[in-house]
Amino acid sequence: MTRGLPDLLAGWITGQRWFAGKGHAVDALAIDSLTELHGGDPALLHLIVSVRQADRRTRYQLPIGLRAELPGRLRHALIGACTWRGRQRYAYDAVHDHVLTGRLLAGMADELTVGALRFHRVPGAEIDPTLRGSVLTAEQSNTSLVFGEAYICKLFRQLTPGVSPELEIVMGLAAAGSAHIARPYGWIEGDVGGEPTTLAIMQEYLAGAAEGWTMALASVRDLYASPPGLSAADAGGDFAPEAFRLGGATAEVHDRLAEVFPTGSMSPREIKALIDRLHRKLEQAVGAVPRLALYAGVAAGAFDRLAGITHGMPVQRVHGDYHLGQVLRTPADWVVLDFEGEPGQPLAERRALDSPMRDVAGMLRSFDYAARHLLVGHPHADALEGRAREWSERNRAAFLEGYAAAGGPLTGDDMVMLRALEMSKAVYEVVYEARNRPDWLPIPLAAFTPGRDAP
Ligand SMILES: Nc1ncnc2c1ncn2[C@@H]1O[C@H](COP(=O)(O)OP(=O)(O)O)[C@@H](O)[C@H]1O
Ligand SMILES: O=P(O)(O)O[C@H]1O[C@H](CO)[C@@H](O[C@H]2O[C@H](CO)[C@@H](O)[C@H](O)[C@H]2O)[C@H](O)[C@H]1O
């Protein structure tokens, strides 16, 4: 059997970008399920493992390759040597081996069931099983494989039992003919904790598209390099027209989501519960990042102002983790990716109806990130601070204008909700950056400026 494999994996998993428990020791790693997707040499094992860290248990999906000899092209993916069925094998991260990832594509094309894994093809979609897969090199919470510039297949790393909100939403929006999503082709499902669970989703790969984050950064760079005194509007590469258009696309996506999925209203009692929840999350975040205590009053004030909303607020399905890295600009329009909600949150919370301001808040935060991230470690950061603020405010305003122009609601109550949710997102980001990119911590901390109201 897999003697030694759990130990090998426990040593390796903590170093992976997608590992969510950074900063805490791994007490134990157990293999919950093992499916042999391809026998022989190379072999492909599909593992679901549980990682125990103090009182928390997190499940991860690991496609593992096994070979008697490891070719040079796979050295970087090596996990270690182990014994498999009495033979010495090199275990490695199989996502880097196109010979093995082809099995996933073929599984979806042929709608196979292999052991506990069920491969699905979207009705009417044609999948070419011969395309070669390669790993997308992006800063990601998951791992995506691009097959021949035609499809992109996202393998969820951290697993939460249940159908992924992303699959649900992409299928719903595709059926409704939304122009703002990448067409779905297939998905992989397995049982986790006794529940059918989405393990991977494959969509159309938008080969020529530019990421919103990259476009925004190019614009910020242009502004920083322009002569002093030139405004963001006059410097080359102004992003505001794109921010306006993105606001419009966001309102259209919200509109479609409200059409396809249930909607509701958040009562004043539920708003009170939301205020309590936001305060609780703030306290937890201060526990995790004590420096946040200095800024917590600004966030708490914004949360408390929600009590002034006396008529309730409309709620619906939303994106949940909306930022510039989740939108792609194709020649035609903006396309929205990754409807997963905040990674690591319980599934019920990620699927719950919420204020569409949650997404508007996420994107406003992202404009601030884009403006400020080049200042991290910059020798002239203080001198550029004013320009960062100008860029951020200009693009935040343009986004809101585009949102409102396309029918997105932005009443007084919406703005109060927006401010509270923006503060809540910044609190989340403080914890996220402390764990993943400590150098970036000043970016979300700068959000807690007293009296700063959206935009
Ligand atoms: N359909 C697509 N076409 C082209 N690139 C894509 C597509 N979907 C995702 N990407 C690229 O992959 C990156 C990560 O995708 P995402 O769904 O956000 O993964 P994660 O949930 O792991 O963050 C995106 O930022 C984008 O650059
Ligand atoms: O991996 P996901 O895309 O689902 O989201 C997580 O990682 C994001 C970072 O890649 C993080 O976003 C934060 O950084 C972005 C720039 O890299 C910035 O545009 C976002 O505004 C900021 O929140 C996201 O919060 C996290 O959930």
What is the CATH superfamily of the largest domain?
Aminoglycoside phosphotransferase (APH), C-terminal lobe
What structural class results from the helix and strand content?
A: alpha+beta
Question: Average pLDDT across residues?
Answer: 94
Number of strands: 18
Explain how this protein is built.
It is a single chain. The chain has 455 residues and is an alpha+beta fold. The protein folds into three domains: 5-95; 99-204, Phosphorylase Kinase, domain 1; 210-448, Alpha-Beta Complex (Aminoglycoside 3'-phosphotransferase, Chain: A, domain 2), CATH 3.90.1200. 38% of the residues lie in helices and 23% in strands. Helix 4 packs across helix 9 (357-373) and helix 6 runs antiparallel to helix 7. The N and C termini lie far apart (58 Å). The mean pLDDT is 94. Bound molecules: adenosine-5'-diphosphate (ADP) and the ligand O=P(O)(O)O[C@H]1O[C@H](CO)[C@@H](O[C@H]2O[C@H](CO)[C@@H](O)[C@H](O)[C@H]2O)[C@H](O)[C@H]1O. The site of ligand LMANGFYV has 17 residues, from helix 9 and helix 11.
Question: Descriptors for this entry?
Answer:
455 residues; alpha+beta; Phosphorylase Kinase, domain 1; six-stranded antiparallel sheet; 12 helices; globular; binds adenosine-5'-diphosphate; binds the ligand O=P(O)(O)O[C@H]1O[C@H](CO)[C@@H](O[C@H]2O[C@H](CO)[C@@H](O)[C@H](O)[C@H]2O)[C@H](O)[C@H]1O
